[in-house]
Amino acid sequence: MFYDNRIWIGNAGDKRVSILPQMANRHGLIAGATGTGKTITLKVLAESFSDMGVPVFLVDVKGDLAGMCRPGTDSEDMQERIRRFGLDEAGFSYRDYPTAFWDIYCSSGIPLRTTVSEMGPLLLAKLMDLNDTQADILTCLFKMADDENLLLVDIKDLKAMLQYASDNAAEISKNYGNITKASVAAIIRGVVALEAAGGDQFFTEPGFNIADFFKTGIDGRGTINILDGRRLASDMKLYSAFLLYLLSELFETLPEVGDLDRPRMVFFFDEAHLLFDDISKALKQKIEQVVKLIRSKGVGIYFCTQNPRDIPDEVLAQLGNKIQHALHAYTPSEERAVKTAADSFRPNPEFDTKTAIMELGVGEALVSVLDEEGVPTVVERCRILPPRSLMGTVSDGEREKVFLSDNLYMTYKDPKETDSAYEFLERLKSQRELAVKEAKEAEAAAKAEEQEAARAEREAAKAAEKAAKDAEREAAARKKKAKSAAGSVASSAAGTIGREIGKDIGGKVGGSFGKTLGGNVMAQLGRSVMGTLFK
Fold this sequence. Notes:
The protein has helices at residues 38-51, 76-85, 116-127, 132-147, 155-167, 169-176, 181-202, 236-253, 281-293, 313-316, 332-343, 353-359, 396-404, 407-412, 421-533, and strands spanning 2-3, 6-12, 15-19, 28-31, 56-60, 99-103, 110-111, 224-228, 265-269, 299-305, 321-324, 364-368, 380-384. It has 535 residues and is α/β, with parallel strands linked by helices.
């Protein structure tokens, strides 16, 4: 409850224990075993920040924080608590709070989306449980996408990029190191599993604008942004990756503002141990850096977990406001955990901290906050105030009525298709297929032309050969004809000459008869001889 310009947490006897607004962004811890009252404490703090005008973001893992959109209900138990704390004098009343419901799966709240590029290769590698080699390859592909100005918006883009890398591994390896098809195939399997787990709904546009978490209601109270974590909590990898992404987004987006009189915003991370389970050294260092430096950006972070041991010492040292509910010690390991939790508090001489942790009842907690100088106060054993809103959940219909009436719902309602890596690579693939097709067609046309030229050459050769043979035959025929004609002339001339010779000889020998006979014989002989010569 925000009262007397302080965040009133509870009472230690008659003493009020409160967080100073200017110290609220020094971060905090709410710890305790299941069923000890952590959720009620979280609600009391969230309501107080809202009353102070500070927006809040929290994850509702069990669904019992949704009641903040409805006023609480009266009961004998509540009346007894109101009297015990003197809340009636402080103006306590039941009230609802300005609430915005968000949902990664786009069904129980305003769709909460981001892009693959915004999530980045480190968180995606954690999300898909990739080994170091596969994570390095994924980082190289993100670098290649940046170099080529390719937007990685949704799962389609990431799958298209991986398939392109597999198809062109040898060429890409020249500039980005060895990329094996086996490693790319393993990453693709991880992407398919992520898609089946709802990643196709989470990774798309429009990506959420973190500035939308910083809204206030019309009465000046900060909006309580509630992320539905009921389904999300069943996928611990997506849950932890989202929380890590949100931390990084806060750190990279918000400007430096220094120390303010109150936080700009407060984040509650329930089941905080998930942030630190099985993460790489690089991610752990990133979280530590964000927690250390984000205070100067006006943001307070409160981790909620069962045991302080779930938080690394480097982060735990940054949590100045601590609320420790009961812990149990049934084993030596749990005994050590209780001692560790007790040792993190500044001792109070009025009781033994370790013993008190194991004796706390439901709704009780050990509390230490930062004073005006930023020094932790001695630990106090407190009873935590009741919330002003409804304890418990609301029906799905009531939840739907709230988020459907939110102006932001229309902004994020429908996913948007963007011309990104998938579309570019599809066009590139089509262009390459077209180029290959055209090359094949050109090759086929050239081959056909070559074959046609060869055929024409063969036919021309045959025609030339035939013409040559025809010319040769015609020449032979002409030669023969000429020879035959010459023979006839020569034969006729020889016959005439032979006849004259024969007449002359025959006349001399045998008179007129001899002349005729000799002429005929010699004419025949002349024709025979010439005919043989011109044959």
